[in-house]
Amino acid sequence: IIALVVICVINSVQTIGDLSATTVGGMNRELKTKELTGGLLGNGLTTALSAFFGALPTSTFSQNVGIVAMTKVISRFVLALAGGFVLLAGLSPKFGALMTTIPYPVLGGATITVFGMITMTGIKLIIKDELSARNMTIVGLALALSLGIAEVPAAIEQFPGWLQSVIGGTPIVLAALTAFVLNLVLPQVTLDDEANEREALARSEAKADSAAQEKGEKPRVERMQLSGSR
What is the 8-class DSSP label of residue 58? Predict the structure, then answer.
């Protein structure tokens, strides 16, 4: 039960990311609150409905983000038509067999393009916000831990089995948990705050150097250079 709850929570995080990336990539604007709540509500209802059939929780299809970002097509009619093709492929073996005749080079080229657009849309989302030290720390640690454990699963082999299944199953779980915790723990510092801190530090260093010169001592920078040369 705990594992399924974690999956549902991470699934909601993925849904938020997919919805945000779709609006940014397809419409060049931020996600509205009404759209976010509607998307989460729809995903929650389908997840609850899937439980009645003994199925796993549903999730948004991230590959569609790349397609929307590339084509800029956000028509509901097109999405409904694509859903009809999926249903037809699942209910009609002949239609499903017809879809498998698509050459692998065509599928490979489309897949590379789609995932490339997904990556660039994610980068666009990151740089859309200010790249402060706090934000870069959150993004960097989330990516490093998730991708690192995915490549070296032996790093968590001493953890309990249930914890290994939660954070080692898919990288997005650990990335979401890391980003969520760091966002709560790290202080809210903007680029303006960092600039003010640097200016205050520079002023204090200038005062210290002027005071040292009045006393006949060398400035702090020269003292550091002399100590480094030794």
Answer: P
9: helix, strand or coil = helix
Residue 219 scores a pLDDT above 60: no
pTM across the whole model: 0.63
- Rounded to 5°, the CA angle 103-105-109 comes to 125
Structure-block tokens of residue 218: 């060398």
Q: At 106, list the tokens.
A: 């065509």
The helix (run of H) or strand (run of E) holding residue 47 is: helix 33-52
* Tokens 């690192």, residue located: 148
More confident residue, 81 or 69: 81
d(CA 116, CA 70): 10
Q: Give the type of residue at 158.
A: Q
At residue 207, the 3 state secondary structure works out as helix
Residue 72 DSSP label: -
Q: Name the residue type at position 12.
A: S
* Cα(46)–Cα(57) distance, integer angstroms: 8
Quick one: angle between helices 33-52 and 2-27, nearest 10?
A: 140
Local structure of residue 217 (DSSP, 8 states) = P
**Residue 226: band (very low, low, confident or very high) from pLDDT cuts 50, 70, 90:** very low
Residue with tokens 């903007």: 190
Structure tokens at 172: 């997005």
- Tokens standing for residue 169: 């199953």
SS3 percent helix, strand, coil of the chain, rounded to 5, is: 80, 0, 20
CA R_g for the chain: 25
